[in-house]
Amino acid sequence: MNLTHNRYFNFSELTSTLQDFEKKYPDLCKVTSLGKTEGGFDIWLMTLTKDVQKSPDAKPGFWVDGNTHATELAGCQACVHLIDSLLSRHQEPQIQDLLQHVTFYIVPRISVEGAELAVTNNKYVRSSPEIFPAHVPQENFLEKDLDGDGQLLMMRIKDPAGAFKICEADPRLMVLREPFDYHGEFYHLLPEGEFQNFDGFKKSYTEAQNFDLNRQSPVQFSPQEYGAGPLPMYLNEAKVIAKAFVDRPNIVGAHTHHTFGGFLLRPSSLRADTELPSFDLEIYKLQGQMGQKLTGYKAFSVYHDFRYNPKKITTGTWDDWHYDHRGVFSWTTEIWSLANQAGVEFKKPLDYYQNPTADDLLKMIRWCDQNLPEKQFFKVWTLFQHPQLGTVEIGGWQGLYVFRNPPPQFLEKELVRLTDFTIHQALMSPRVKAEVHSLEKLSHDLYQVKIKATNLGYLPTYVSDLAKGLEIYKKPKADLVLSKAQGLVQGKLETFTHHLAGRSADLPWVSPLWGGSVENKHESLFEYVIKGSGDVHWSVDYQTGGKVELKPQLK
Description:
Structural class: alpha+beta
Number of domains: 3
Number of strands: 26
Number of helices: 14
Helix content: 10-25%
CATH topology of the largest domain: Aminopeptidase
Strand order of the largest sheet: 1-2-4-3-11-14-12-13
Radius of gyration: 28 Å
Distance between the termini: 52 Å
Shape: elongated
CATH superfamily of the largest domain: Zn peptidases
């Protein structure tokens, strides 16, 4: 297969690419449909690990998804790049070792129908194009390609009451009018389109409220949240994703790929850092530092740094559900920042969306002038006779592949960074090794067997402190299976055991100056006395820590 990472896939191209991976690497990856979208498209899952056909769920799992929001197409491509990197590099020692011990569950595109509209028609919907129940607006503004150029851009309309004016330094740009500014030409800025049932005066807009799938999770769900809908997991897409996650209790980490802004966002959206378990907060801080170093993106707490309304929390998001309901360390990546490329710095991450100044916009358009053909990022304002509004001008930023997603020629550079972050976080997973600690023949047919299980990974087998309080995971259990000719003299065939700490156990109080704890909380010993020679089958299942087994011979 001849795969490049400088373009965006439609659904057919995504499907054939995933199927090509499976054909080329059948021992490493498997494509399945998790279910259907509201419109009947498959939501593809790529399961990827060494010996994928055997027992992928017996290893710690790492979840990665993309394109929760329809126009955030780079999230899908980030998933494809991760798949390609893991498969094409599977013989490199680090990747080979990773795939030996971790299973990746990768869902490249969740909002399949919405993304298809974005790729093929340049149309904006938040997630699914489904309209809220019983919400059929009769008076509305409908986006439409009026001039037939295949793009949905902006209209500017002269009006002394308008909130915008032409930038003096670059007449292509529209900038906000100052509160005290009353002299000159001013404009309204609207999306390209027209009104339903227009009476010649009243310009009405009733939001159809396309669903936002990142407000559909059950965590503190609220129907008052914009785009949330009437109840959690109302759409098939949300049900499918939640069930797939729950059906894989071995998942220990998650990345959900969005755009844009060049940020790494972490839970909680719901409460302050002081209310998180101290251990979990230390892990999040460590992962944030690692992510910043690998991606160049800044890491933020959503609660403290990324609230659209400072007086309101954001509810129903999937990274919060991953952490609050599943105990999994999850990150939302906001891929790409034109501002970062242009050297624009914002004090707060949301300023990028809410308050770019004229100087900020000038820096960004000059970067585009130097790095992109003009037709790729901007359409010069052109007169158009609107059927309802009279003379307008159509033009402006071509935002889909400039602001919302990287221009195709800059896509791969962004994706490499994100793949590195995902790989490094996955390498933090628990990693249990089992070995025969001692095997002693007590008499001609009596044997004492001691088996040691050790967590060599960074995270504990319970993953997070929050997960310990969730009543959703089975208690770790060791099983001993004997042959018919054998008998158990001491010990139990089924032994419920404790979780194993990881190298992170003593955070933050671990240092080369004074070392760490003297306790060996990272290992456990299982002791048996068995009558009769032959093979013994022993296994222990830590779920999130994976399952390991041994077959010692008694002779």
